Amino acid sequence: MKHNSGKNLVVVGVVVLWIMSAFSAVAEEAFELEEIEVVASPIIERNMVDRYAGQKTLVSEAQIEILNVQDLTAALRKTPGVNISRYNPIGSFGGGEGGAVFIRGMGSSRPGSEIKTYIDGIPMFMSIWNHPLMDLMPIDTARSVEVYKSPQPQNFGNAMAALNMVPKIRDEQGVGSKATVAAGSFGTVVASVESGGRFDNFDYYLGGSYRSSDGHRDHSEGETGDLFARLGYDFNEHWGAYFFGLYSDNSAEDPGEEGTDASRREGTYETRSRLASLTLSNTYDRAHGDIKLFRNDGEGDWLDQPTSTEGVREDLFNDFTFYGIKAREVFSLVGEAELVTGLDWDYTDGDYDMVLSDGSTNPWQGHDYTMISPYIAISRQFGSSDGVTVSPSVGVRYYDHSDFGSAWSPHLGVVAEFGSFTGHAGYSRGIVFPGLDVVVFSEEVIPVLGDSWKALDPEVMDHYEVGVSYRLGDVAGLEVVWFYNDGKDRYVFITSPTSRPVYGNVEEYTTKGVEVSAEIRPAANLAVFMGGTYMRTDPSDTPYAPELTLSAGLTWRFLKAVTFSADVQYSDDMFVSSQARRAGAVNMAEVDDYFVLNAKLSYAFKTKSEKVTGKVFVAGENLTDADYEYRPGYPMPGLNGMAGVSLYF
Question: Average of pLDDT values for 58-87?
Answer without folding.
Answer: 95
